[in-house]
């Protein structure tokens, strides 16, 4: 009897390197399922960023290019313009996108590049041991804010989705969460729609995923899910910010 495949065809049969309770594996699987359902495995091209997910090309079963830190949107722009019929997406964390790559992402949105960004927001620098990120919440404790983020001194978190939704070239923006099954299902619907918006040539699309980082938050996986619900969602909010009525 043939072995039953328990994961999408677009995902390699490998064990994640991510910490227990990390949301990256959930989002990877969502992307794999969406690509399978849209039947675009042979035409999709991912752009990997620098961060905990830098080597996601080892897990996806399609073409993925590694970009320098923060430059994934620039690389994706070049790929999409050379191969306009391909589906191109970037996969970026908050340190990569909201700090090092802020200029790249804002101009991609302003130009209305027909590509998609999956933005993982866990409110901290994960790979480099838990420093404050641009998305770190007020009063949140990190390695570089041991008594909590002080907005008078450190400034306020950057709401990336709201900023990009204001750009005329942006067609679709939604913020989702991974803290329970109900919201994971909604996250999948948003990511699928973002890819379909790109296929329809409507402009730039982005899905921000509120995600866990149990190791650097100093919490258990279960506590991390609750932390998203109790702290991240009240601050950032979830839901559609642009393109809710787009029919694709």
Report on this model:
By secondary structure, the chain is of the alpha/beta class. It has one domain: Thiamin diphosphate (ThDP)-binding fold, Pyr/PP domains (Rossmann fold, 3-Layer(aba) Sandwich). 37% of the residues lie in helices and 17% in strands. The chain is built from 9 helices and 7 strands, in the order H-E-E-H-E-H-H-E-H-H-E-H-E-H-H-E. The protein has helices at 24-38, 72-82, 94-100, 102-111, 151-154, 160-165, 181-199, 214-217, 221-236; strands at residues 44-48, 63-66, 87-93, 116-121, 170-177, 204-210, 239-242. It has a 7-stranded mixed beta sheet, with helices on both faces. Helix 7 links the parallel strand 5 (170-177) and strand 6. The longest helix is centred in the C-terminal third of the chain and has 19 residues, at 181-199. The protein is globular and about 50 Å long. The mean pLDDT is 94.
């Amino acid at each position: 009897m043939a072995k039953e495949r328990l994961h999408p065809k677009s995902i390699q049969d490998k064990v994640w390197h991510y910490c227990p309770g990390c949301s990256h594996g959930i989002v990877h699987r969502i992307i794999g399922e969406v690509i399978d359902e849209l039947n675009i495995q042979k035409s999709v091209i991912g752009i990997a960023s620098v961060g905990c997910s830098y080597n996601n090309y080892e897990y996806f079963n399609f073409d993925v290019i590694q970009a320098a830190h923060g430059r994934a949107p620039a690389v994706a722009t070049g790929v999409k313009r050379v191969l306009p019929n391909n589906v191109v997406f970037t996969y970026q964390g908050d340190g990569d996108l909201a700090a090092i790559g802020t200029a790249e992402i804002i101009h991609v949105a302003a130009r209305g590049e027909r590509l998609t960004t999956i933005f993982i927001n866990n409110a901290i620098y994960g790979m480099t041991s838990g420093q404050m990120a641009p998305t770190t919440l007020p009063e949140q404790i990190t390695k570089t804010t041991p008594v909590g983020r002080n907005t008078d001194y450190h400034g306020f978190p950057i709401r990336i989705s709201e900023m990009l939704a204001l750009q005329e070239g942006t067609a679709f923006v939604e913020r989702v969460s991974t803290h329970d099954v109900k919201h994971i299902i909604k996250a999948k619907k948003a990511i699928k729609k973002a890819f379909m918006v790109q296929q329809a040539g409507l402009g730039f699309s982005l899905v921000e995923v509120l995600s866990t980082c149990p190791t650097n938050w100093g919490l258990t996986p279960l506590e991390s899910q609750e932390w998203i619900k109790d702290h991240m969602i009240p601050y950032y909010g979830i839901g559609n910010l642009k393109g809710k009525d787009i029919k694709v």
